[in-house]
Design goal:
There is one protein chain. With 473 residues, the chain is of the alpha+beta class. Helices cover 43% and strands 22% of the residues. It contains 14 helices and 19 strands.
Length: 473
């Protein structure tokens, strides 16, 4: 398991627990509404009024690789504080050695949860409120104030400082501040007076418009970034945040060990511990810690097993539905005979394919009567699309799998068709004109589709007679 994003924050105001729980549930309902959850997206919730630990763990398949992506939000009430911890993890679902992204910038919905928690907690770092907003230093006084904050011995978070004077466009912006919420402070130096005041108070020229400066907490050297965007900077800071996360041991200890620990702790409270009882207590604590780690590992394995079992169950149910359809075809020779009927039925039942409006129109305008053959090919394409979205293979080899599984498949169209008749193969998809080149030959009919490699959606663009190419001249 690899942690790809992590953030934590604490507040002494423990009365904010319910408000924080409500924020997590709002995020969960937004990202995974209850009515749209499936068995392949398990959601585990630990929530009780008497439990000091609240936790939500969501596991979903990453369509870009053979792994499950987990999001875990944890809220812990201790004697002195309310602690919030948010992590994204990548959990392999295959034994194969595959490339892994080690850092993830949070997507907008996750950033929104972070912002809500940060604004709720109003925590301070060396006197400065932790905020998803940019600190602006535009005069001598604010420049000196920022320098003093940078030198504060109790500061926990790094400060990202960019001098924006004379720049046509700042490298860091409000989006950077949002993605670094709770991870780093972001400051802009907006005047030469502020820049001079900062460097003068610091005693060295550490900020300049030629680079972006990261002033790490005391004990680490200042670091400069020379770049045209904030990508590497944000990744470095997220990696640092991940490295600083505490180890969360949340599984309850086994009753036998817990009773022994309580018994020994009671004995040590009533009398001075002998060397023997102190050693026994320490050993029991070690055993307890090992059991907690073991339970956490078992829980993770059980979650992954549950998710994979759910995937297999969905595949089995889909295969049963397809078999029932094919049996009906054998019993009733007119069943799904028309291409229009086959496409309408496929649109309703093949959830892994997206049917463009042009595909529906072209099928309705066609009078071809080999609908069953068209439907069977759409079924096979739907199964391949499900594997693609689940991450069973990489997007760049999708056509290879189509060639293996689909008879009469062609990955592209002729040069003449593309140059002379491109409009025949074009569809508007998400505001852009694209060509549906891959196609399946079904007798006189053709199924043209488009693979959106950004989202891994398979879009059925056209179903009907042979479109124009060199063979139709």
């Amino acid at each position: 398991m690899i942690t790809t994003y992590g953030f934590s924050i604490a507040t002494p105001n423990k009365e904010l627990r319910q408000a924080a729980i409500d924020a997590v549930f709002r995020w969960l309902d937004d990202v995974h509404p209850h009515e749209k959850r499936t068995n392949s997206t398990p959601v585990n919730i630990r929530h009780s009024a008497n439990d000091p630990i609240f936790r939500v763990d969501v596991l979903e398949q990453d369509p870009r690789q053979a792994a499950a992506r987990g999001t875990t939000a944890t809220l812990i009430v201790s004697k002195s504080e309310l602690y919030f911890d948010l992590r994204r993890t990548l959990r392999p679902t295959k034994a194969a050695l595959l490339p892994r992204r080690t850092i993830d910038r949070p997507e907008p919905r996750l950033s929104q949860l972070v912002i809500e928690i940060v604004d709720l907690f109003k925590a301070r770092d060396a006197g400065q409120v932790i905020s998803p907003k940019i600190i602006i230093a535009n005069d001598q006084l604010t420049g000196q104030s920022l320098a003093a904050f940078a030198e504060a011995p109790g500061r926990r978070l790094p400060i990202v400082i960019e001098t924006i004077v004379g720049k046509p466009r700042a490298v860091t912006n409000s989006d950077t501040a949002i993605q670094l919420a709770g991870i780093a402070h972001l400051a802009h130096i907006a005047s030469h007076a502020a820049e001079e005041a900062f460097n003068s108070l610091h005693g060295a020229r550490i900020i300049s418009s030629s680079w972006i400066t990261v002033v790490w907490p005391p004990g680490a050297e200042v670091e400069n970034f020379h770049q045209q965007d904030d990508d590497e900077l944000v990744k470095q800071l997220i990696a640092a945040s991940i490295g600083s996360l505490a180890t969360l041991v949340l599984a309850p200890p086994k009753k036998r060990v817990l009773d022994q620990v309580k018994k020994l702790e009671t004995t040590t409270h009533t009398a001075e511990p002998t060397p023997k009882s102190a050693i026994e207590l320490e050993e029991l604590r070690k055993i307890n810690h090992e059991l907690l780690e073991e339970n956490a590992g078992l829980l993770e394995n059980a979650t992954l097993t549950f998710m994979l079992s759910a995937q297999k169950a969905e595949e089995r149910d889909r295969a049963y539905d397809q078999l029932a359809t094919f049996l009906l075809m054998d019993e009733d020779k007119s069943y799904l005979d028309k291409i229009a009927d086959a496409v309408a039925y496929a649109q309703k039942n093949l959830a892994n394919l997206v049917f463009h409006d042009r595909a529906i129109v072209s099928a309705n305008n066609s009078h071809l009567m080999n609908g069953r053959r068209v439907y069977s090919n759409l079924v096979e394409l739907n199964n391949l699309a499900a594997r693609l979205q689940r991450g069973d293979f990489a997007p760049n080899v999708f056509n290879i799998y189509c060639n293996q599984q689909l008879s009469n498949f062609a990955a592209s169209i002729s040069d003449e068709a593309e140059n002379r008749y491109a409009q025949d193969y074009a569809i508007e998809w998400k505001g852009v004109n694209v060509l549906a080149k891959p196609h399946i030959r079904c007798g006189d009919a053709r199924i043209h589709f488009y693979h959106d490699t950004t989202t891994n959606e398979i879009v059925i663009a056209y179903v009907g007679r042979h479109l124009r190419d060199k063979s139709t001249n």
